[in-house]
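Most newcomers find our protein records easier to grasp once they have seen one. The structure tokens are whole numbers drawn from a learned vocabulary of backbone shapes. The record below serves as our worked example for the rest of this section.
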Amino acid sequence: MTAAGTVSRVQTAPSWLRYSGAIEELSIEARRALFARATNTSDSLAAETARIVSDVRARGDLALLEMARRFDSVDLAALEVPRTMLARALDETPASLRRAMERAARNIATVHSAFMPSAVEVESESGIIVGRRPDPLRRVGVYAPGGRASYPSSVLMGAIPARVAGVGEIVLCSPPDRTGVPSSAVLAAAQLASVDRVFAVGGAGAIAAMALGTETIPRVDRIVGPGNAYVAAAKLQLVGDVAIDSPAGPSELLIVADESADANDVALEMVAQAEHDPNACVLAIAVGDGLAGAIRRALATAVAATPRRDIVALALAAQGGVLCADSVESGVDFANEYAPEHLLLAVRRPDAALSRVRNAGTVFLGAMSSVAFGDYMTGANHVLPTGGAARTYSGLSPLDFVRWTTYQRVDEEAARRLSDDVARFAEAELLPGHAAAARRWSAAS
């Protein structure tokens, strides 16, 4: 019983699931832990990353070649991958995978072309024109993770929007495998996305190389793409030297589900995101105790069945949960506060719920709109803000690959009308030079 004399809905979570019960009855400590997922690096990781960045800054290519031996166990003859290898990798890609990659590339290009911003001019007063024009960046860097797995989808998600925006040169860095080059799938995706140059460089060293430039790798204006904790730390440490997409951390999913949702579908979506990383954050907010219990049971079955059950179980034990809410509206309000990377609205009226959403990297409307579809094929971008950064950051788009040039034109009559008021502002701010420049155009001059 609670202090108010009502039956508490807080339930004991299974040993493999960290959070359970009602969202309004979470303790202050539990709520703080649930929301504490911003990108934080340990002192040792930050220090090691800083050493890598400093080494690349001081020794350039030589530092990168030594890092390849140390971290990737490979002696590189060269950092750059010949373009002929990209074309060959695409030619040798199995037909079924190539069709899927080409379909994804088409959809990404279609969606992001529609997202491309336009120039605009406005007349604030008669004779005063102010305009803004999107200009593509000169050169950008795309990072694609490697190591135990390769991510050709990340190549497409980073490079195609840059190409749509008209970026002059696209550089890709991805870790080499034992053959001394990135995986064939990454190279095939680079060819498909019309990447200009590819380098077999990974980790924090790759970020430093693109941010600072080396003898071989050109300096870029912005770096985009996911990576491990060292990649994320290097991006943050180099913000003064290069622009980045957004602070990045482990994958996140929050599902709001009502009685129309199938508990098994919810469980499968949770497992799909939890398999990314032991640090993934995966939550379901169920409307009603009955659905919450059904999801927990379905989740136990789904975890036992997945080949990556060890990773999934670690993620759910660390930052996983099935909570209940009194209504879809309260579930969405909780989601706005949590600001997830992925938000799945598995509810009867998803469009109505969407109107209430304010903070999410990307939103999936209806249970059939699987997050996996967005990860690969819908054309939306999967490079998204995590750790609550969705309160202020958006998913990757052509807007990340342009800068705005603002211009203004004042005709002679408007200059005369502006002069006195501008001069008064300037004098109030003790800037007589500004006042004199403005009064030169006054009607009395």
